[in-house]
Amino acid sequence: MGRERETRKPQQVSYTVEQLIAVNPYNPDILPDLENYVNEQVSSQTYSLDANLCLLRLYQFEPERMSTQIVARILVKQALMAMPAPDFSLCLFLIPERVVFFSQYLFLCLRHTCCLNQMEEQFKTLIVLSHYLEVCTFATGRLRQFWDEAAKSRHIVESVPGFEQAIQSYAIHVLSLTYQKVPRPVLAEAINIEGLSLDKFLEHQEANCGWILEKGHGRGQLIVLPHNEFNHPELKKNTADNIPLEHITRIFPILG
Amino acid sequence: MATGYDYDDAPGDYEGAADARGSQDVAYDPNFVPDSVKTFVVHLYRHIREKNVYEIHQMYETSFQSLSDRLFKDTPWPSVDAVANYVDNDHVFCLLYREMWFRHLYARLSPTLKQRIDSWDNYCSLFQVVLHGVVNMQLPNQWLWDMVDEFVYQFQSFCQYRAKMKNKTEQEIALLRQYDQAWNVYGVLNFLQALVEKSMIIQILEQEKEGIEQFTATDGYDYNGGSNVLKVLGYFSMVGLLRVHCLLGDYHTGLKCLQPIDITQQGVYTSVIGSHITTIYHYGFANLMLRRYVDAIREFNKILLYIYKTKQFHQKSPQYEQILKKNEQMYALLAICLSLCPQVKLVEETVNSQLREKYGEKMIRMQRYDDEAFSIYDELFSYACPKFITPSAPSFEEPLVNYNQDAYRLQLKLFLYEVKQQQLLSGVRTFLKVYSTISLGKLANYMEVDEPTLRTILMTYKHKTHAVDSDGKIISNADVDFYIDDNKITHNVVEDIMKDMVHVVESKPVKRYGDYFLRQIVKLEGVINDMDWVKLD
After folding, report:
1. Which domain of life does the UniProt lineage start with (chain B) (predicted)?
2. What is the pTM (predicted TM-score) of this model?
3. Which among A27, A49, A178 has CB closest to B459?
């Protein structure tokens, strides 16, 4: 936590905010602290779902105090960057519909431009981005759906440092659930890195994350992703039949 | 949008029918105390003072109901002032009496705004007395559960009532403005939270695991002369918090509030059927919304089986109708879970046959993902979801608008959005089920999509069937799973351009022998003990 904190003013915000929530989860007075904390999380690349949900909850109780600016930041921050966790939905569940303004057109015509003000436009974009991530359309062939949309909305995306990396690691997460070996072009599309930068990236992953590069059958590189129980089902441990000690204690008198 | 949302969460929530009460007031004399009521309060008061939990429970469950049926079918009970002098004007007893008085009123009549506000005041006084530790009674768990349950219900009812602004009279609006603290969401949450904290229940449950403290073993009662009221109210307040958070759409926080209770085990929450059902219903619903379908299915299955086996014992209980209703709602939620995540193996045979009987045909149609399928998802969700609330106060500016459906519409929409995102998955699933390996090219052909799209769909399948649990661990909800590998065998087949193969893995149901053996060991010990009692002459 707080990689950048040393260079900033020596605040103790993060520490106290977590405490504030623990002691006072339903106290309207901590709202400003929580708002500051959102900005703090953005700049220090940290993340607290509980703190942000707590803030959204206070907004829900007193909509007149809501700052759409902050809400949008939370959505980028948790929504998109916390994938594969369902945090984006968790936030949307709490935000009154009239704020986010995502009506029927969402289902029907994602790209249809209505007359929206800037803020509404921003929420719409976020929801579209989240949709692409949820259905894993980073890029399908020539349609680079997620990455194109993200490129169009640079102002949102770039306001949060670490955005690209977060999405890339989500893409890699889904890929490694799915593939034992992934063809290079598929990986390239998903993480939106190509050519030399991809070589560099692969080198790094090879050294640090146990990736292995293989020559494919006449069609370029294959990347062997690290084994896990989802792409190598035989690794799945039978953890379901573990019995916690406290259940065993119930029969101690009998055993003794 | 489905119209099925007009149901009431508890009997007697007849909002807006307040005018009808005028005629009853003529016949009802709040100061008249029939002899049977006199006897009732005198005895109840005495039993409470003597800490006779058994008798209190009898009077509370049986006598109160039968008196209500006989004398107060459609009028309130006598006012607290009228009975106070039969019980030494005991402050706490009067608060308890009023709590029951309001509960009866909510169940059988429709409360006026003033009565709603008075009931809130009464809860405030009652909980404050409990929180300050002045209470040294021992009350039945059923009663303590009912208090928390009713408190949350009245809060929900108030929010629904307040959200219907359109037909409010000027007088009502003035009252709403004046008593803006009544049933305020902060107040409600903070009372529940205070009960949890002050009771130290979380620590007690922790210490119980280490064997230092007893709570579950005594069903929360205190046999050393102390009081169980704060402790058990604190305990049930955790369930209350889960429920309030679900009503607000905050599923993550709701489940967090419940965490100190281990719902895989029996506990005090299972000692009262109403609490058992409320806990599991909300736990399951929250998990459904968080896409942790397997957790939801597992717990729904257990409780539905339990209700199936025990419902005859509750036929005379005042909660019987509620039990049946929640039972039906949970079958609907189970149907939704299984349609999104077909893990039928997790469902016990009896429950499964009940489910097929009720929703078999609908579940087949839900697999189709056409407009009709969506309308069934909509219908089942609307029928079975909690009665969502908007917690904020209305704007009193003209024009007055109703917003009582807003919260529900939002949750429904987001839910259907999720369903929509999963629409292609049931197609993939069908194909995966009949193959052990299949090349991407062939599968794409069958599914009538191009290969990049298929790759996307397969990744979506993986993402949607792998949930993140509360510790951030990835857990698989997939009934059929697979992985993609570059396959050496097909590599000679010329027409197979894409050589990537999908390898299908059927998930096997995990058998839980451990718990089964534990239970059998305890059972056997019981039998042996019984046999020791039998003397062979």
Report:
1. Eukaryota
2. 0.83
3. A178
